[in-house]
Fold this sequence. Notes:
Elements: H1 3-84, H2 89-170, H3 175-188, E1 192-195, H4 209-216, E2 222-223, E3 230-236, E4 243-245
Parallel strand pairs: 1-3
Antiparallel strand pairs: 2-3, 3-4
Amino acid sequence: MSIQSQIDALEKLSELDAELKEVGDVLRKERGELDTKRTRLADLVERLSRGKTSIEEMEKARGDVMGEARQMLIQIERSREKLSRCRTEREANAVQRELEELRKLHRDREVEVEKLDVLIEQGRADVTGVLGEHDKIEAELEAIEDEATGRIAEAQARMDERSKLREDLVKAVPPQLYRRYELVRSRRGTALAYTHTGICSACNIQLQPMLFQQLKRGEEIGQCPSCNRIIYYRVVMPAGNSESSGA
């Protein structure tokens, strides 16, 4: 396989890899935006569920405490009646202590109800806030989802098509050269550079005169000593400033 044929194959491969990177960036961006909103929406749904469950549990607890408070009021009323029937001071003192204890317990229940009321109100406010954000995110997702899904499908189809084309292009590159190409690309992002005046097109470093002359004569495909990219000589046609590969 001639040097020029290898250069042509590398140029096509490099152009295709740049296109694949662009398509990949589009896919990541589109999917990322959708995934972010979907994840946030799922989190809000979970928070709503937890918030509503918490409110239900607190309301049940409030009901239980209110029930206990009502029972204590009944007991207080009975103790008052008992106090009115006491015949001795000793009996009266005992019933009075019972009344004081019941009143204290009743006050404790009232305080507990007040605390639960505050927590329930706060819980409802939190749920209202979460619901507002949920509805906002849901509306945003509905507004972009169809179009974004369409763009993702289109980009994925393009990615699949170009990836298949890449498999065919790779077959045109000698295995050892391709391994070198992939190694540099994994480290630098791009693997190919050219020179016309003795300067690397990628890192702008002046090449050694001997290397430049070898590239210019088309004797080999070189490697930039600075950025390590695969480098070749490209003829620049003066008329119209068009560029093409040549020996």
